[in-house]
Each structure stands twice: as C-alpha cells, then as structure tokens.
Specification:
Strand content: over 45%
Helix content: 10-25%
Structural class: alpha+beta
Radius of gyration: 26 Å
CATH architecture of one domain: 7 Propeller
C-alpha cells in the first residue's frame, strides 16, 4: 500500500509541470514523417491555410510526390493534390502562396528526372485544386509574391524577374545586374528587388520603373504596404530609405556587433523591424531612430509580422542552457516588443501570422498547429509557463531516478528475503 501511494505521488509530481500549460492550439494536423519540406501560407483573415511539401513514393526514397493541401481554419482538410512527381535529388516544393482573397494558389517546384536534368515550374491552381497553368522558369532559389486577387505573380530567380499574368501567362522578364538577394511586394502590385551587386529595382505590372545603386551588396529590401517608402538593408548594415520615385530620403548605419541581420521589414506605420541571428530584435522609427530593442536568444529567419506591425511572431528553437530551455519556443510580441504569449513545445519549422493578427499558424515537429492569437494573449501567464517548462523537466528526470531507485530497492529487498527464506529451509 505504501508503495502504491508513493507511485501515485511520483505520477502527480511528474505531471505538475503541465498544470500551468494554458497555451494550447485550437487544433493540429499530423502529416507524418513521410511528408517533409513544409511551406505554409494563409489568407488575410486565416480562413484558408495552404501547405506545400514533398512525400516519398516508396521506402527507397528515390522518388517523391510534390503536394499541395488546402485546409480551413477549423482544421478540416478540404483537398490535397499531387501537382508533380520528381526524383529526390531535387528540392521539390520550393514555395507556395495563397492569394489574400483565397481564390488562387501558386506553387514553385523544382523537378528532376534523376539523371541530372532539373526543371523549375510555377503552378497556378484555383481554390478547388484544379491546375490552371504551368510555366517553366529558370532554375534557382525562388522569391515568390502573389497579388491580393491572384491576378499577378512576381517571381525572382537568379538574375531574372518574372511577371506572370494568371490568365495570359508570362508578361515580361527582366534581367538584374547581379543575382537577386531579396524581394518584397506592396498592395498596389509594385515589387521591389535587391541584388548582390548593390542595385535596387522597382517594378510594376508594366515593367521596370527605376533602379538605384548603393555601394554594397543588398541584404534585404522591404516596401511599405501601400508603396509609400522603400527600405533597403545592405550587407554592411547600412539602412537606406527611398521614396516611390527612387530618391534617397535617409541613410544610416545600424550597429549589431558581430551579429548579422536575418530579417528586415517595414510596417504600414513606416517603422522598421530588424531581426539579428543571435537574438536581438530592433525597431526603428520612420526617421531610423531607435524605438526599442529586445533579446530572445537565437532568432534565425523565422520571423513574421502583421502589416500594421501590431503583432510580431518569431521562433527560438534553441534554449540558453543544455537542459533548461527557458527561452525556447514560439513567441508573439506586440508593437512595443512586449511578449504577449509563448508556446514552447517541439521544434518549430515555420510560422505565419494572418494579416489581421487573429491566427498564428505553425509547423511544429511533423504537425500543423493553429493558435487563436487573442485567446492565447488572454490565457498567457509568463511566470507559470516559465516555471512549468523548466521545473517539469527537472521533476520528470527526478521522478524517473526515484522510480529506478525504488524498483532497485524492491528488487534488493526481495532478493534478501529470498536468501533468508533459503537459509531457514536449510
């Protein structure tokens, strides 16, 4: 009886850490280990989520299907389509986007015949999963942007910029001076491009509007959601602000030490959010003055932001200590850098936040999760959550050790009792 009570106590202790886990997804979908290289995109209000990825055809893992899933915000898979098949020496799914109105899906895929021939395609699908068009483009890492109604598609690959009209095919192709390093798109179908030779280009659906040359390779470009200002971040951490006519408004250098910039985005308030690889997140005002700075361990490039800058979602997959992952997880911050909530379970591959800030979608381990942002903000208790995540691991390890010790003690006592019994029989 005493042993039973002790075991119950251990179970209670080992589950103590989850008592405070108040942040939970609305739902999750498991795709399984056979599905890999996830890419996700959402509509403006999160009514639809598109997931693109690859799936092995057999156990030999030499061929794969390239698939697209459409899921609603209740977690129901509406359909899935295999849009191509390829040998596994290609990247397969490179990127996928759904138009803001949810009517069209665009995917860029890299295909191989397994004998050294590679081709890259842009697929256009309607919301029912029907493939409308397929266009061959140059091979390379693509930058993909889709207009809100799905009419226009900008793709940058190597030193080529494509405009694809959904109904009429490829409208034009422009060549940049160097390979493309960054792209961004505004609501009015204006696209900004940066290249490794230090050039910035602005395009609309008719073609090139202007180009601007800097003195350094371009790391990132970003355009105000309404096209009011263009931001440029050079590899030497020089920030340039250009007006819609391509004239320099402001130039400043940001000091990040040995850290490097991995995220650069202008909000519709003309503030600039800058993320660095070792965990510093900066917010600059429209005159490039510092507004705030926070540190959350390593960020890498998994950061996204609502157009108004009200919510920032970011990922830290690495804790500060080898056993206590106190800073690990998915974070959502407000526009002042305050942590609104955190979810710290699993390895996070990708995240998206809807334009209205209502939902956060994440690929965690092999599952797709949807979080209600407002519900998570309401339920978040930072002290309880931090306590539970750290202490839960300690308690679980302690419980395992105690169970092993108790079982060992029981075994020793049993053997002693058995030995005494044998002696009495003699």
């Amino acid at each position: 009886m005493k042993f039973l009570r002790l075991m119950v106590l251990l179970v209670m202790l080992s589950t103590l850490g989850v008592v405070f886990a108040e942040i939970n997804p609305e739902w999750s979908i498991k795709f399984g280990e056979n599905f890999f290289d996830y890419h996700i995109s959402t509509t403006s209000n999160g009514s639809y989520i598109v997931v693109g990825g690859n799936s092995y055809l057999d156990n030999n893992q030499k061929k794969m299907n390239i698939l697209v899933y459409l899921i609603d915000n209740k977690g129901k898979i509406l359909w899935n389509r295999t849009i191509a098949t390829s040998a596994t020496d290609s990247f397969g799914m490179e990127d996928v986007k759904i138009s803001k109105n949810g009517n069209y899906i665009v995917a860029v895929v890299d295909c191989s015949n397994g004998r050294g021939i590679y081709k890259q395609y842009v697929f256009i699908l309607d919301k029912n999963g029907t493939i409308l068009k397929k266009h061959n483009i140059k091979n390379g890492m693509p930058y993909l942007f889709v207009s809100e109604d799905g009419k226009y598609i900008f793709v940058g690959v190597k030193d080529k910029v494509y405009l694809i009209d959904r109904d009429n095919g490829i409208s034009w192709i422009y060549e940049t001076n160097g390979d493309i390093t960054s792209m961004d798109m505004a609501k009015n179908n204006i696209c900004v491009v940066g290249d490794e030779d230090g050039y910035v280009y602005l395009y609309n659906t008719s073609g090139l509007i202007w180009s601007y040359q800097t003195n350094e390779s371009i790391g990132y470009v970003s355009i105000h959601p309404n096209g009011e200002v263009i931001g440029v971040c050079g590899y030497n951490n020089t920030i340039y602000l250009l007006n819609p006519n391509g004239r320099l408004i402001k130039e400043s250098h940001i000091h990040t030490g040995d850290d490097w910039i991995v995220f650069f985005k202008i909000t519709n308030k003309s503030n600039i959010l800058i993320g660095c690889s070792m965990g510093c997140l900066y917010c600059l005002g429209k005159n490039l003055q510092p507004l705030w700075k926070i540190e959350i361990s390593k960020l890498y490039d998994k950061i996204c932001i609502t157009p108004d800058g009200r919510y920032i979602a970011l990922v830290n997959n690495f804790g500060d200590f080898p056993f206590l992952y106190g800073n690990k997880g998915l974070y959502v911050l407000n526009e002042h850098g305050k942590v609104l909530w955190r979810y710290s379970k699993g390895y996070i591959h990708d995240i998206k936040i809807t334009d209205d800030g209502k939902y956060v979608v994440a690929v965690i381990n092999d599952d797709l999760y949807l979080f209600d942002n407002q519900k998570c903000i309401k339920n978040y208790n930072p002290e309880a959550l931090d306590y539970s995540e750290d202490v839960k691991l300690i308690i679980h390890i302690t419980a395992i050790i105690l169970v092993v010790l108790i079982l060992s003690l029981i075994l020793v006592l049993y053997l002693i009792k058995l030995e005494n019994k044998k002696k009495q029989q003699k």
